[in-house]
Amino acid sequence: MRIERHWWNGNRSVSGRRDVYIRTDGQRWEVEAQAGGLTGRSKVQQCPSLSSAEILADAWRGSRPEWRELTH
Q1: Interatomic CA distance for residues 60 and 63, integer angstroms
Q2: Per the CB 3.0–4.6 Å rule, which of 1, 8, 28, 68 could disulfide with 23?
Q3: Euclidean distance between CA atoms 69 and 8, whole angstroms
Q4: The pTM is what?
């Protein structure tokens, strides 16, 4: 799976960091919400399309303005 989009909440502390990823293998899509960096907790949800993955990623980020999209 490759990362298609990635957002970060801007918090550099391990306990406060949150990331949301959209990934695809070209056929399947998934969204991962990660709390606490690489060693923290995460939840992955499969999605049928990019548009549904974007809707879910938007919902998981909420309306907080500190989220920023990162490029890979």
Answers
A1: 9
A2: 1
A3: 6
A4: 0.91
The answer to whether the CB of 47 falls within 8 A of the CB of 31 is yes
Q: Express each pLDDT in 14-71 by its tens digit.
A: 899 999 999 999 999 999 999 998 889 999 999 999 999 999 999 999 988 899 999 8
The Cα-based distances of 69 to 7, 11, 32, 38, 72 in angstroms read: 4, 13, 14, 18, 10
Select the more confidently predicted residue: 71 or 10.
Answer: 10
What SS3 class is residue 22? strand
As a whole number of angstroms, the distance between CA 48 and CA 44 comes to 13
* Residue 52 phi, psi (nearest 5): -70, -35
Beta carbons within 10 angstroms of residue 63's beta carbon: 7
- 9 neighbors 62 (Cβ within 8 angstroms): no
